Amino acid sequence: MFRRVPAFPTVVLRYTPPMSNRVRPALVKVAVLSVVTAAAAGCGEVGTTHFAPTGKMTVARGGHTATLLPNGKVLLAGGFGSNGTTIFASAELYDPATGTFAATGDMIAPRYRHTATLLASTGMVLVTGGEGSEAQTAELYDPATGTFAATSNMTTARFEHTAQLLLNGKVLIAGGSDSSGVLASAELYDPAAGTFSPTGNMTTARFEHSATALGNGKVLIAGSVDGSGDALASAELYDEAAGTFTATGSMTGPRSWHTATQVVSGKVLIAGGISGGGINGPHLASAEVYDPKAGRFTATGSMTMARSFHTATLLTDGTVLIAGGASSARVEVFNPSAGTSTAIGSMSGPREWHTATRLTSGKVLIAGGDASGSAELYQ
């Protein structure tokens, strides 16, 4: 588990400011929490969670990426270890058929705060950037061979950027940070050519923002941390046909380290995050919805607790599973139609910097973000 502000006497987090290259947050050992009922927790939760244990990862990691492959397996790559200083080049595969993790080929460079994007045209996974000396490099994972291979470098070094697959098969890489500060630049990766090329700049520099493909040829970019560590409320749209960014309506308030999930209606649910003051700023329980047709955000019902570094996963029934973050084990389900969120219990233990991946079965794999390398399934 990762901690910034201790909530329990035995828990401590180490975290360096976004511009530092030297020390990473530590995965901290915590006592495993049992799944609780509403009566036991005393938190107004409904029933028990639907989590079940699954196999353990080959290494305890957080800040990694998790990508669902065409064969139904999940690729988990990079991240940092329980000592807070080790960055991994290793990767592993989760097989839902056996419920086990197994090592696969290593990346060509250790990475965390990187991105991983499944390429629709090839079935390969594009991995880009990450904090450190390899921040400008990129590589491809081939599921057929279980190996990574270098592809061309990005036009600039980046970490904590976003990578979003476009309708034309290219990947939009936007913002992030390098050794000089927060970036407004963006670029495109062309899988056919294996190269990166510049595209229009964002309207403002952004770091720890969200990027959500809207399905209409546009990508919503929302929130950010600026160079001084303050959060932004502004948002903008990337038009893949024009190759340009334009401002859209602002969020109801500033936030970064939030989640952005497109729901069945086509709207985007923005939940939680930090409202300002850097990594230790106030955590948010609030949520809001972006309407692409109206081009504006409106407030919706809040989560049951304030969260950052959590996950938000669209479920097959159209609701959104919100898990962990803020060093919590608690889980809730947000109903976009009703605009309400309901606490449903807890995971096996607190998680932060974990990943959540919806499998082809509809179950959700929750992996990492604790000191033991545990994983579990929401079903």
Task: Write up what this structure looks like.
The chain is mainly β and 379 residues long. It has one domain (38-378): Neuraminidase (6 Propeller), CATH 2.120.10.80. 1% of the residues lie in helices and 38% in strands. It contains one helix and 30 strands. It has one helix at 38-41, and strands at residues 51-53, 65-68, 74-77, 91-95, 100-104, 115-118, 125-128, 138-142, 147-151, 162-165, 171-174, 177-178, 181-182, 186-190, 195-199, 210-213, 218-225, 231-239, 244-248, 259-262, 268-271, 287-291, 296-300, 311-314, 320-323, 328-335, 340-351, 355-358, 364-367, 375-378. The strands form eight sheets. The protein has a four-stranded antiparallel beta sheet with strand order 1-30-29-28, with no helix packed on it. It has a four-stranded antiparallel beta sheet with strand order 2-3-4-5, with no helix packed on it. It has a four-stranded antiparallel beta sheet with strand order 6-7-8-9, with no helix packed on it. The longest helix has 4 residues, at 38-41. The two termini are 22 Å apart.
